[in-house]
Amino acid sequence: MSAHLYLEGGGDSKELHARCREGFRKLLERSSLQGRVPRLTACGGRDQAFRDFVRAQNAAARGDYIALLVDSEDPVADIEQTWAHLAQRDGWPRPSGACDEQVLLMVTCMETWLVADRGALRRHYGVQLQETALPPLPDLETRGRHLVQTALAKGTRGGYRKGAESFKLLGELDPEALAASLPSFARARRILKQRLPQARGPRPH
User: Fold this and answer.
1) Are 141 and 183 in contact (CB under 8 A)?
2) Peptide bond before 150: cis, by omega within 30 degrees of 0?
């Protein structure tokens, strides 16, 4: 059995693809998945991530776990009905044999995950951070992505930048802080813990 997670992010740069993978890998390891992190592929744009996922899904062996992690772009009516959301939002059809647990959504965008961890933001930006400019934590996933992204830029006094900066911050996040405010993150962590192979212990001598 193998596991492979296709990520939205990284643009067209090999360096940013590497930073994207590193940021998500660190966050997953912090999420009690040490030794179980799946193979990660940074795909750039969301449409490319979907195409890469479909290709892998069609070629997967029985028992493989192939998953897609993308921004939801808009608030989600039911986070368990991921393919219904993507069909309505993006016109993406559910590939043959795929289930809802193969789609992990960042609702509404990766910046929502960043904004959810005020402690990480304080450690990263220090006195530059203006927390009063950030959206409140309750019902954070109902906030549109443009509002969240604008608030993060304002709250860091222009210090936040998409790309290397965002992926570095991603790797510094506390999964418990995210799970407390973001049902989508709590769902993703739960699914990965259930679906990923258990870490192998040391080989006997």
Assistant:
1) yes
2) no
